[in-house]
């Protein structure tokens, strides 16, 4: 099991949670091919609504990637994003600011958000456990480990 952070506006994450999928990098397939069934993904949302500057800077979802490969989703118009199915945990949003010194990939880094520009970031399992604790879903994450 690997741990990942996807980056998307909270309103896009909410749609994925409601419909049981994830997508990253504006629907590109290549990043989703790095993820395997059973991996855990948390979403970091820099903003509330895509295309605005309404800051959020919080983790907004966490779940386990289901069996299957990336597939093309159905959207209005000619947009055909690639997606993966996810079983979302019962988690609540958690601001990143109180976690910055506790996460390996952000601790001591003034430009901690730089890694998020790629849209999908591999992180240490220990970092995922810290995020899960903050989101109130540590028990669901621990159950995956056995």
Automatic annotation (TrEMBL):
Database matches in CDD domains: EVE-like (cd21132)
Cross-referenced Gene3D superfamilies: ph1033 like domains (3.10.590.10)
Highest taxon above the source species: Bacteria
Stretches assigned to the EVE domain: 4-133
The family this protein is said to belong to: Belongs to the UPF0310 family.
Protein name: UPF0310 protein ACFOGH_01050
Lineage, highest ranks first: Bacteria, Pseudomonadati, Pseudomonadota, Alphaproteobacteria, Rhodobacterales
